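Saturday, quiet lab. Running sequence design on the structure tokens for the scaffold JK sent over.
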């Protein structure tokens, strides 16, 4: 028996090492735990367990690489894989120009970029609500793998599955070639949106393997992602792929008709030094981005060189027109903005916060057109109207308020008016918590994102500070997940929140102290009465 002792000890030690290594894999690599492998219709997929116990699956291809003959073409089904896909790292992001506004850390880029990521609190037979996030970035920047969009905290707190996606950007996703390439490129101005639809189809077909409910999918997006949400509400190809929608700081106003899109195409081809589609397809991805960068100028309008196109095919009508006509019937909607949206751009150009409205409007055609369409009819009259309700405000403060309303708040109100008028669940919010670290930023564009995802480390810390109010984040995460679960964002952590309707315009104002208000800044809203903000018809 004495001889068995060392053998037993060695066996015990070996078993212990296996357990330790597999335990490490569970929390870091996902290599040994069968519980991190799912068998989805798309194939077997291995994920990893995050530090807070959520299971993450990263870099799952949801469509074929849009390269070679598939450049400028609608997305095609993903190529099947053999064995088990190791979904342990993010897939590459779309090739894109540098973002001088955020100075975001560069991520690996490739034209082969159509990947999605899934976070689930626990695998098994449960059927949780599913939240699919569409990132912003002016339709030219961004990625679903940005650390601020890590879905682990939201998934755990909300008991929901969270999905983030990449989609084609800039000339790869929104360069309208129908006017130069014919019917074969009729949908090329909306390929980024069609990518989003392909991702939603993949989610609907496969999410049950991740303990998600394919019949209860909510899309949510911010900035260009919010605009994408509103476009998807209007697209026939997206019908039935989601049950609910949340649009953050993005509405239905940044679309363009084929004439405007063709003008952008002409400028782009000139910058690229080519005369036809064949010339564009012969260029490398980086060469296309270089041509895109040549078109950028310092004005705020350059943020939206590319974007959805009302092409009569993928996007048959302006989204707001379609929503008014019932395209989003049956979909619950939550939409909102931040109090000082436009101030984000002052971080890159501080002088913007000091300029009078006449100067600002002159550089942004949409703003000048909107002002001309008001009953006041001039920048001076609009400025005077706003200033009368802003005691002590500087001309720059007035400009910031007007631009926020023209580009973000009033377009969001128009979408809420359209959906609520058809007696659908519609909810409005306003985020007004100001940055404690950058005074000029206030409650600027995108500042709500770390509160929605519960992620405060990294770059966002310079905007939200070292000790942001976690109670505010909890309230927002609980509202977003409650809405995804039932279509109603009410929960114990917020005051009673009434649905939006034209008579009261109930709005939940998220701040250090959160409260509902009816028609906040209503007098400013009335300045724009009768201006449609549909972005296309009638032209602003």
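Result came back. Writing it out in full:
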């Amino acid at each position: 028996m004495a001889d068995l002792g060392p053998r037993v000890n060695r066996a015990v030690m070996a078993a212990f090492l296996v357990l330790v290594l597999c335990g490490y894999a569970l929390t870091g690599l996902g290599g040994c735990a069968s519980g991190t492998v799912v068998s989805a219709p798309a194939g077997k997929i291995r994920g990893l367990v995050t530090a807070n116990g959520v299971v993450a699956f990263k870099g799952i291809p949801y469509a074929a690489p849009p390269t070679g003959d598939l450049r400028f073409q609608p997305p095609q089904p993903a190529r099947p894989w053999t064995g088990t896909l190791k979904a342990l790292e993010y897939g590459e992001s779309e090739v894109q120009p540098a973002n001088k506004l955020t100075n975001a850390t560069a991520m690996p880029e490739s034209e082969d970029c159509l990947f999605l990521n899934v976070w689930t609190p626990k695998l098994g037979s449960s059927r949780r609500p599913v939240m699919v996030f569409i990132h912003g970035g002016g339709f030219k920047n961004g990625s679903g793998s940005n650390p601020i969009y890590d879905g682990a905290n939201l998934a755990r707190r909300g008991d929901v599955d969270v999905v983030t996606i990449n989609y084609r950007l800039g000339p790869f996703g929104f360069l309208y070639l129908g006017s130069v390439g014919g019917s074969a490129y009729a949908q090329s101005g909306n390929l980024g949106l069609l990518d989003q639809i392909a991702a939603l189809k993949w989610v609907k077909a496969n999410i049950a393997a991740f303990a998600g409910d394919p019949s209860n999918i909510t899309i949510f997006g911010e900035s260009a992602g919010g605009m994408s949400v509103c476009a998807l509400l209007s697209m026939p190809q997206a019908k039935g792929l989601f049950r609910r929608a949340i649009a953050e700081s993005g509405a239905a106003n940044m679309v363009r008709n084929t004439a405007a899109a063709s003008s952008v195409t002409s400028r782009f081809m000139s910058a690229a030094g080519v005369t036809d589609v064949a010339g564009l397809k012969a260029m490398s991805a980086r060469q296309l981005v270089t041509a895109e960068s040549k078109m950028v100028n310092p004005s705020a309008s350059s943020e939206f060189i590319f974007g959805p196109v009302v092409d009569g095919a993928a996007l048959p009508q302006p989204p707001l027109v379609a929503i008014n006509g019932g395209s989003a019937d049956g979909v619950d909607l939550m939409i909102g903005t931040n109090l000082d949206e436009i101030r984000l751009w002052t971080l890159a150009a501080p002088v913007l916060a000091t300029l009078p409205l006449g100067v600002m409007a002159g550089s942004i055609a949409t703003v000048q057109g909107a002002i001309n369409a008001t009953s006041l009819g001039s920048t001076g009259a609009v400025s005077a109207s706003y200033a009368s309700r802003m005691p002590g405000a500087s001309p720059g403060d007035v400009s910031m308020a007007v631009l926020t309303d023209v580009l973000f708040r009033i377009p969001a109100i128009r979408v809420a008016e359209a959906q609520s008028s058809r007696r659908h669940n519609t909810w409005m919010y306003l985020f007004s918590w100001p940055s404690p670290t950058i005074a000029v930023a206030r409650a600027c564009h995108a500042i709500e994102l770390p509160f929605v995802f519960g992620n405060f480390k990294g770059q966002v810390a310079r905007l939200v500070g070292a000790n942001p109010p976690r109670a505010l984040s909890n309230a927002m995460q609980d509202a977003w997940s409650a809405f995804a679960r039932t279509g109603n964002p009410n929960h114990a952590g917020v005051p009673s929140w009434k649905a939006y309707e034209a008579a009261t315009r109930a709005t939940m104002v998220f701040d250090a102290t959160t409260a509902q208000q009816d028609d906040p800044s209503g007098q400013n809203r009335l300045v724009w009465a009768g201006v449609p903000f549909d972005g296309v018809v009638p032209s602003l």
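Notes for JK: The chain has 18 helices and 16 strands. Residues 1-34 have pLDDT under 50 and may be disordered. Ask whether to fix the surface positions before the next round.
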